[in-house]
Amino acid sequence: MGIPAVLVVLPLGMLFILSGLIVNLIQAVFFVLVRPVSKNLYRKINKVVVELLWLELIWLVDWWSGVKVDVYADKETFELMGKEHALLICNHRSDIDWLVGWVLAQRFGCLGSALAIMKREAKFLPIIGWSMWFSDYVFVERSWAKDQSTLKSGFERLEDFPMPFWLALFVEGTRFTQEKLLAAQEYASPRGLPVPRNILIPRTKGFVSAVCHMRSFVPAIYDCTMAVPKDQPAPTMLRMFRRKSSLVNLQIRRHPMRELPETADGIAQWCKDVFDALLEMYYAKGVFSDQEHRDILRPKKSLTVVIFWACLLIFGIVMLFKSTSFLASWPVIGFTVTFLVLVAITMQILIQSSESERSTPPSKLTQPDPMSERLIKK
Fold first, then answer.
1. Residues 6, 13: contact at Cβ < 8 Å?
2. What is the mean pLDDT of the chain?
3. Pfam families per the record (predicted)?
């Protein structure tokens, strides 16, 4: 992290961490006091509370860095988004594809009920991971023997969810890198499988489980394909902090759940068939399809939330100066320096956790190696 980035990350990090701790505390209080009495009332309250934190990241995309998200969808899909439960499947290509999903959810009024299936380590991330844990995210260990029951209980918990939710599932199971793509190609070729060019081979067990357990109360699957134009830099958290913009194209296709096959094998094959088609077209022709571009605008709600937190933080700092002999108090100075160091470390952890290069590395996929079967499981 260079000097210019630090000068931006520290003040924004202070804002995010202090407001995040307040949000986490409020979530914890309602989790203890309200959830045992009424789970659905807790969920409605938590949706409002957690958006006070997550909108800060939306502001980072919309107002600070100016990253533009262009959405392509048919009219029926666009009109139904945010009005129904949905299972989202998406390629996992960039560092911030999860954040692009949040931007989309915010536009359709379901940011606080946008959920995901994520690796277990994510719930231990300071502030952001804790907020996800309080919000019914499903955390897995990437071991089917352990995750099968976790997924089942996680899906069943959502049956009585009191508002439209989106549950995101990255069926590749890990973020895309060229190294992982090469491993997937080496795995596919000797087995007579289609050799992937733009995605990793889908791990379909989680998707099959989601469809089987949720098809009775989730009416649709949103097949999302995300791509960055070749003439645009890939957006990252660090680039956004540095106010460097980019463009992300997002195509959304809605599939009614009732149209999916009934058998597990059929569902798995359906997932494989639809997953790579749009990305192949995009990189061949530079466009997804003939779907119409939909303007999702740039609401001022995230800007309002950041201004609110900033005013609250400035007020607190002013009161601190008034109530203490700040410059003459070594304990206060020591605490301040320690706090700033912790802010820097925490923001470094959060930024690095979003980087594709630091995601789970691929295993060697030689034909006789039994580890290959664990890299890309259905």
1. no
2. 86
3. Acyltransf_C, Acyltransferase
CB 173 within 8 A of CB 199: no
- Decide if pLDDT at 7 tops 60: yes
- Report the alpha-carbon distance of residue 197 to residue 218 in Å, rounded: 31
CA 248 remoteness from chain centre:
15
The phi-psi region of residue 324 (left if phi > 0; otherwise alpha if psi is between -120 and 50; otherwise beta) is beta
Q: What is the Cα–Cα distance from 343 to 17, expressed in whole angstroms?
A: 7
Mean pLDDT of 6-10: 82
Distances (CA, A) of 264 to 204, 206, 213, 260, 322: 9, 11, 11, 10, 66
State the average pLDDT over residues 36-53: 97
Least confident range from 2-6, 61-65, 146-150: namely 2-6
Q: Are 6 and 304 in contact (CB under 8 A)?
A: no
Taking a C-beta distance cutoff of 8 angstroms, is the pair 113, 47 a contact?
yes
> Angle at CA 266, nearest 5°, toward 375 and 290?
90
Shortest CA distance to 378 belongs to which of 247, 272, 255? 272
Sort residue 249 into left (φ over 0), alpha (ψ -120 to 50) or beta.
Answer: beta
Q: Which residues does residue 226 pair with via DSSP β-bridges, in sequence order?
A: 250
Tokens of 134: 């309080």
The DSSP H or E segment spanning 87 is strand 86-90
In Å, how far are 82, 83, 294, 297, 376 from 78, measured between CA atoms? 9, 10, 8, 14, 33
164 Ramachandran zone, left/alpha/beta (phi>0; psi -120 to 50): beta
Domain boundaries, the chain: 3-301+350-355
Altogether, the residues listed in the chain come to a count of 378
CATH architecture of 3-301+350-355: 3-Layer(aba) Sandwich (3.40)
